[in-house]
UniProtKB/TrEMBL annotation:
Signal peptide: none
Organism: Lactiplantibacillus garii
Family named by the database record: Belongs to the SLC13A/DASS transporter (TC 2.A.47) family. DIT1 subfamily.
Bilayer topology annotation: Multi-pass membrane protein
Protein name (Swiss-Prot/TrEMBL): DASS family sodium-coupled anion symporter
Molecular function as annotated in GO: transmembrane transporter activity
Record key words, sorted: Membrane, Transmembrane, Transmembrane helix
Localization: Membrane
Amino acid sequence: MNNNVKWKGFILPLILGVAIWLLTPFKPVAITVVAWHLFAIFVATIVACITKPLPMMATTLIGITVATLAGIFKMDEVAAGFGNSTAWMVAMCMFMAAGFIKSGLGKRIAYLFVKAFGKKTLSLAYALSVVDGVLAIGIPSNNARVNGIMYPIIDNLSREMGSDPDQGTQRKIGSYLVFNEYEINNVTSGLFLTGLAGNMIAIGLAKIQGITVSWMQWFAAASVPGIVALLVIPLVLYKVYPPEIKATPNAHAWADKKLQAIGKMGLSEKIMAGTFVLAIILWLVGAKIGIDATEVSFIAVVVLLLTGVLTTKDLLNEHFAWNILVWLSIIMLMSQKLMKLGFFPWFSKTLGLLLNGMNPIVVLAILFLVYFYLHYMFPSIATQVSALYAGFLTVAIGAGVPPILAAMMLAFCGSINLSTTPYSAGPAALLSSTGYVSNADWWKLSALVGVIFNVIWLGGGLLWTKVLGLW
């Protein structure tokens, strides 16, 4: 008996899956029995990803096996499903993130910004925000950015300034910098398509419904609300959650000392920097020369392998990348089959009729807010995107929302809704447990920033997309 299996976690998925299966509409309707049965298995699989009797990779493997035994898939289809381009892009970007951390380039960038702009606490917060933004272009793991690069630097710098949660002096500067990093990381995650794995998952699901969003299209739509949020959040937190230390003259010397300790820029850092710049250029112009975003990520990883910045062992050690490659491929495969069998078009048309007469933009705004606040129920980005994104997108399209607008706005929401709870994602779980920010402060500040995010990204974002001609 496997003690790692949480058997109670299977109860709700089984109940829902069996119930939906038994409700199969045998009278003539617009969808087939096979489509309905796959929907039952899909719902059970997604719910199991939430209740977690096993990790997501194992859960989705069980789901696709059941679907195969039910005759919905052939094994050749399942095997071919692991060639999904979105899943591979996410995995490759995770490998790029490993290159940033292993080479030390991420830390060097942070130290350089602190040295240049760290004379006052507010300017230091902005400098660290810019660093996170730069790293987000090529590191789609918010965990890697926060846990591997940003938090260790903020923690060391705060203690250097005499701000130590172990001594009860966290409010001197550490509390402000830690919470600012948490919220800024949510902004930078939404600023770039490659800023968060969840973004690529969402756009991959949108692609199944015939909606294609390029790296540049994403950035164009996210740039204004993203940059406004980057400017507003550090200042708002500085006012409502002020640090006791307003000036940080020691930050320059501290960063300089750190830079001296790591020495001159090594060959691996130079190669990583060059590869990073190459990836950005290709993400910007690749579509015009026949190179898509997934191919760019492959090119970058191959360069890092050929130059020795990364080794095969490094890739094999990136367990999360391989894990997400498996479960995301299966989720995409099930979604593609549901689309092929006509389930999503039928679902969209059916719900669209219920919303007939409502202004499409009003419908989108309501869906955005519901999607945002539903994250209070989810301890994982990937789980919510997998569970809700395709359905919300289908409803929006059925109500008459322009498809590309609906796809991007809901995907943006999947980044900024990480500002909700101490368990919203890995960075929140880490930062909220460091002792720098009390639990009560965390909830209050998160609620406030959530409102600000909705004003900027929903209100301002819709206005900006109007300027761009998306609706």
